[in-house]
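Notes from the 1:1 (GR / supervisor)

We went over the backlog. Supervisor wanted to see one worked example end to end before approving the batch request, so GR pasted a single chain during the call. The sequence is below; no edits were made to it. Supervisor asked that the structure be written out right there so they could see what the output format looks like.
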Amino acid sequence: MCGITGICNYKYPEYIAQQSLKQMTDALHHRGPDERGIYIDNWVGLGHARLSIIDLTSGTQPIHNEDKTKWLVYNGEIYNYPELRSELRKLGHQFYTDSDSEVILHLYEEYGHNCLDRLNGQFAFAIWDNKKKELFLARDRVGIRPLYYTIKKDCLFFASEIKALFINNEIDKEIDPITLDQIFTFWAPLPGRTPFKNIHELPPAHFLKISNGRISLKKYWDLPFKTEDAFTIRSFQDTVDELRSLLHDAVKLFKRRFRLIGSVSNCRQRFQPGSEYLWDSFCGKRI
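Structure output shown during the call:
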C-alpha cells in the first residue's frame, strides 16, 4: 500500500507551506516506506509515500503527463494496466515510466471522469489539472483503498488516513456523536462519515471534483440488481463453468502484483497471503 496527501486552495491561489505537506506525508510513512515525493504550486500541493510494487526504479510520484500540466498521486493497483497502456499508446500518448499510475493519468486525459469505467483494480487517487485549475479525487468501486478529506477556510485537505489531516493545527479534532451512535448501532459509520466532525470519507464508487471554486461529489458506479424476470435460466453445470471462468480471469489479473526478489527465480514476495493458493485452486485444480 501507499499513502497520498494533498492541499487545495479551491477559490483563490495562496501560499501552501511545503513543510506542512511534508509532515502530512511523513505521517503515512508506514504505508509507503520506499520513498516520498511532493508537488506544490499556489493552488495545490500533492504528496505521496510510496511502497514500490510496479516499476520499482522509475515509478516515483507525483506522476506527470507529457507537458507537466497534469499531476497525479495514487494508492492502489490497476490489474488491467498493460492493456490500457497499449490502447493509450495507439491513441498517441507517450509514457516515461512502466507504472500503472501513469496509465491512470493518461486515461483521465483521454476520457475525463469516464476513465473510472475502464479501471479494473483497487485505487484512491488525486489528479490536478493545472490548465483548468481542477482537482479530481476518486475511489474504487468497493472502497478497498481509503481516502478522507476535510474543508477549512476555502481549502480542501485530503489524505489516505485521518491522522495525516490532523497534522494541520487548524483542523479541529472533535468527536462526532452522531457517527459514534451509528458505530454502536450498525458496527460501522454510514458511508461518507467518520468519528470526527467535518472529517469526511470519500465513499466507495464516488469521485469528488473541484472546478471553478465549486466542489461536487458524484457516484460513478452502482451494483446492479437484476429482477427475477431478467435472469437467464441455465443448468447448474453452466453456472459452475461460468463462475470458474470468472475466477480464473480475476486471479490471473491479480497474480500480476507478485514480484521476484533475490537471485532465485522461484523465490517470490507475496503481498497478499493465500493468493498463490487461490491461483492453484481456481486455475490449476478443479474444485
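Supervisor's comment: Helices lie at 18-26, 81-90, 100-111, 162-165, 177-186, 236-254, 275-284.
Batch request approved.
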